Amino acid sequence: xxxxxxxxxxxxxxxxxxxxxxxxxxxxxxxxxxxxxxxxxxxxxxxxxxxxxxxxxxxxxxxxxxxxxxxxxxxxxxxxxxxxxxxxxxxxxxxxxxxxxxxxxxxxxxxxxxxxxxxxxxxxxxxxxxxxxxxxxxxxxxxxxxxxxxxxxxxxxxxxxxxxxxxxxxxxxxxxxxxxxxxxxxxxxxxxxxxxxxxxxxxxxxxxxxxxxxxxxxxxxxxxxxxxxxxxx
Amino acid sequence: xxxxxxxxxxxxxxxxxxxxxxxxxxxxxxxxxxxxxxxxxxxxxxxxxxxxxxxxxxxxxxxxxxxxxxxxxxxxxxxxxxxxxxxxxxxxxxxxxxxxxxxxxxxxxxxxxxxxxxxxxxxxxxxxxxxxxxxxxxxxxxxxxxxxxxxxxxxxxxxxxxxxxxxxxxxxxxxxxxxxxxxxxxxxxxxxxxxxxxxxxxxxxxxxxxxxxxxxxxxxxxxxxxxxxxxxx
DNA sequence: CCTCATTCGAGAGCACTGCTCTTGACTCGG
DNA sequence: CCGAGTCAAGAGCAGTGCTCTCGAATGAGG
Lengths: 233, 233
Fold this sequence. Notes:
Tetracycline Repressor, domain 2; homodimer; Tet_transcr_reg_TetR-rel_C_sf (chains A, B); AcrR family transcriptional regulator (chains A, B); transcription (chains A, B)
């Protein structure tokens, strides 16, 4: 998709990418609000105002980085899923969870950007939420397959859905997995929030003092969650 | 503790409190890094440099607000626990969870301050972690009581602890609840991360598009968690 | 090939930030 | 009552995001 335009257009595309790369680099070093347009420009040998030819504001740059981060995380999760034999449903489910954690640990500032506290007055533009849905969709895909096989065996003893929640789950199911009963989806959402809750706690230092090197705890929790949602062992 | 000092000391204490109050107010309106020392000073009718007589840096002010936030959250959780009859263990457990969510929703910027992405280069000082432990301690207290009564009935089917994790849990137990077996503590930690994961997702807008008015989902999840940890019904 | 609108980088400048240093007043304990 | 300690104020530094203007490069239409 690079060939078909003028030299100016190609230069523009390249510079846009370079700006994002440098911004991402600074993000990794100094964190989310250590990012400075002027510093990015300086590093690229241009003047700060030139950046505005490519990104109309700092927020727009941030948004681009956010979208990229969501996409990268989605790719990582998808890859982890596909790396395993299709029949190994529990393995795939757990692999996705571990992929999320691994990616987050390897790109902590980008993770903080998308799952940390939202930046200043900035509200996530529409475009980001499509990318944000990638990880849950991968999880749902595994879930659907297990459901189709009839091997889903959720733990007992776990709460009944209120009418409103059941309705919400049914609406959600219509969009992504019509055949899944609300009970299954509700548990999946619990798993989803748990997954990111653990990763955030680990990365944001909330786990210090309890289960600090948290590899084993994470593996344990992922196992518990697989049981909760009923992944066959 | 106010009486016993000179007028200057009292003035100092008052001004310190006023600065914190105004900072907290601005935090609530503009969010964590919309907070400006100059703006605080302006609002208080003083000049920016005067603030430095009371807080040596912006980070120190932030730290003070963080400590206060942890304390307020701890107080809210404790109060919720004590509001219920001592025998209603499951109710108390769930009330603590709901109190955390309610406090977070009512003080979203303060919540973001303590459970969102850590600020710039800032690392949480020792002082904060003691306050941060309040909520888990309240949960552990309920857990110990249930354990003492022998009414704890965890769900089956849930993973075995690896050696390392069991060791971590035993170490942790020694500090807070020597009689609790590592299995119980591990599940409690899962609940703890789940609780804050849900609250963060809700407040940070990650739930939009799935279970958005999340009251019912939250109640459901809290119920599931109570089962997981084995709270008697 | 030439023209002219569009696009671009550079620079100056605005309003803001956190923070430091100095100066001249105020307060209070010995 | 006076000197040490504390205070608010102001100027100033280095940095920020962002806007505007001005020459120069570019490239599409005539």
